[in-house]
Amino acid sequence: MNVIVVGLGRMGCGLARKLDRRGNDVCAIDQDPQKFEDLGEGFGGRKVVGVGFDRDVLAQAGIDRAEAVVSCTTSDEANIVIARIARDAYRVPRVIARMYDVTKAETYRRLGIQTISTTDWGVRRACELLTYNQQDSVYQVGTGEVQIVRADVPPMLEGHAVREISALGEVNVVAVSHDNVTYIPTQGTVLGHGDVVYAAVAASAMEKFAYMLGKSK
């Protein structure tokens, strides 16, 4: 995956190093050249000096081919600008912004931007958000007869109830993540934009679940 990480504070450095170790194509951006030293000698990604919302800097970082952008500067305002440019101008599929002021969460949500907060949790959460496909098995129960599957809610199912992606004895939605909060839904829970569902799926029903989500397995 091609990932751009903007801002090399503790979170940005930790995330860039972790994604690089996992074999991703990482480009780190920071306006302070000395920050790149914190990445360590083992970092194999690219480094670009500059302001993260400067389009020339983003072009140098390869945003036209980026699959994800994570903005974790020390400024909420800068993170919003960078995230919006990545999402709206360059159509980057996955955009994540660091958030210090939790009262701004609604602003991010309306813009369709994922948010992360505290450093240690944020690195783990950002990696989780970046490193799964639209439908991924995250845990196998027993010898694989049942799998816990994580999936993005497609636009066609936004506003629809959980029951529409459930099948008795085959598919059971056990959790929904909405605006960085995960909860146990009911069959009547309405799915929204940007939601992620976790479902217990029988191995024999994986194709059925993919079909329910409008995807081919």
Written account of the structure:
This protein is elongated. The mean pLDDT is 85. It has 217 residues and is α/β, with parallel strands linked by helices. The longest helix is centred in the middle third of the chain and has 14 residues, at 76-89. 27% of the residues lie in helices and 27% in strands. Strands 3-2-1-4-5-6 form a 6-stranded parallel β-sheet, with helices on both faces.
Task: Describe the structure in brief.
With 217 residues, the chain is of the alpha/beta class. The chain contains 6 helices and 11 strands.
Strand content: 25-35%
Uncertain stretches = none
Helical content band = 25-40%
- Identify the quaternary structure here: single chain
What features would you highlight for this structure?
217 residues; alpha/beta; six-stranded parallel β-sheet; 27% helix; elongated
Write the topology of this structure.
Elements: E1 2-6, H1 10-21, E2 25-30, E3 46-49, H2 55-61, E4 68-71, H3 76-89, E5 94-98, H4 105-110, E6 114-116, H5 119-130, E7 135-141, E8 146-152, E9 171-178, E10 181-183, E11 196-202, H6 206-212
Parallel strand pairs: 1-2, 1-4, 2-3, 4-5, 5-6
Antiparallel strand pairs: 7-8, 8-11, 9-10, 9-11
Helix pairs in contact: 1-5
